[in-house]
Design brief:
The protein is 44% helix and 16% strand. The protein has 12 helices and 11 strands.
């Protein structure tokens, strides 16, 4: 989940923002023959992890130039470049949406400016995902998961087995439990799920690994592009789907999972239940982040989310993760989960 820790204090020194004109000049140095006819700021100037500008070439093509503003952003950018280079033309041709292409880079102030071809489309918040758009997103994610794992392995990117996924979940639960801030009922729910072997019987696939609403570009109720590939690896397909449980429009989440299953078949019958667990564990991750940076604001947010999750589970007939009826419902919880989603990235 990427990350500007929206609404929270930055954990790195403030860097003076670069103007979009400066960024345009860097882009012309990075890409041979780039003739810029227009430039505008892209995103909030001086905020977030990157300084960015949208460029229009005289040939009508569009480009994005980004310069990281923190060490974490620089590491994310480096991982993104490795992933994009691994995605050959043949791999990209299997996807029903666009993936950005690396165009060039140039050193600047101890880091680098990177230029990408612009992927068209607008952003859609979780609350704006309709059933039609949800179905498009579900089908698109299924296409990612159908890609051959060989190109990820050949690029030296991580590969995690189902056993690895289960161990990671257990380790996260143990760390969260050690804070003493997780309600006993919720902790019991998580421990029961982590101990249920059937929940972890899945075949690892190619996954984006950092999916969230900020990753998706849309137009005309269709997913047109996916941004942010720094988490590309072989792993649990539920990781790419768990954020969709926060969609608030009636039928959107069901449409996404139904479209995914229609494309992939019923090869992972516990996918949605595992996605539910992983989405709840994002709150545990948010809690741990708050304790690590010693932010009472983040810890308080996490505790509020944990309380809402506990109430939601206890309000249903069953309180186990294997129950389809247990999901994330409240608008307040959805908003806080979007923050946790950004934390994962």
């Amino acid at each position: 989940m990427a990350c500007d820790w929206a609404g929270h204090r930055p954990t790195y020194p403030v860097v003076m923002a670069r103007s979009h004109f400066t960024l345009a000049a860097l882009a012309t140095s990075a890409v041979a023959g780039l003739d810029v006819a227009g430039v505008q700021a892209f995103g909030s100037l001086g905020h977030g992890d990157f300084d960015a500008a949208l460029l229009t070439g005289r040939d009508g093509r569009h480009w994005i130039v980004r310069v990281p503003r923190s060490e974490r952003a620089e590491a994310e950018q480096s991982a993104d470049l490795v992933a994009l280079r691994a995605m050959s033309t043949g791999v990209r041709s299997r996807l029903p949406f666009a993936v950005s292409t690396f165009a060039g880079q140039v050193p600047v102030s101890g880091t680098r400016a990177v230029v990408y071809e612009f992927v068209y489309g607008g952003k859609a918040a979780l609350g704006q995902i309709t059933p039609q758009l949800g179905a498009s997103i579900g089908s698109g994610i299924a296409a990612i998961h159908a890609l051959p794992t060989s190109f990820v392995v050949d690029a030296g990117l991580p590969g995690l087995s189902a056993v690895d996924g289960r161990r990671a979940a257990l380790a996260l639960i143990d760390r969260a439990a050690a804070t003493g801030l997780v309600p006993a009922a919720l902790l019991q729910r998580w421990e029961a799920a982590s101990g249920e072997s059937a929940l972890w019987q899945y075949t690892p696939t190619v996954i984006n690994g950092s999916f969230g609403s900020d990753s998706v570009l849309v137009a005309s109720e269709r997913m047109t592009g996916v941004l942010g590939w720094h988490g590309l690896r072989v792993g649990d397909p539920a990781l790419d789907l768990q954020w969709l449980l926060g969609a608030t429009m009636p039928g959107a989440t069901d449409a996404a999972f139904d479209a995914y299953s229609a494309a992939r078949g019923q090869i992972d019958r516990r996918l949605r239940q595992r996605a539910t667990l992983l989405s709840e564990l994002e709150v545990a991750r948010w809690l741990l982040h708050g304790t690590e940076v010693r932010s009472t604001e983040i810890v308080d947010d996490a505790v509020e989310m944990l309380s809402a999750l506990t109430d939601d589970a206890q309000a249903t007939l069953g309180s186990t993760v294997s129950d389809d009826t247990v999901s994330l419902r409240t608008a307040e919880l959805d908003e806080l989960l979007e923050q946790a989603e950004r934390a994962r990235r």
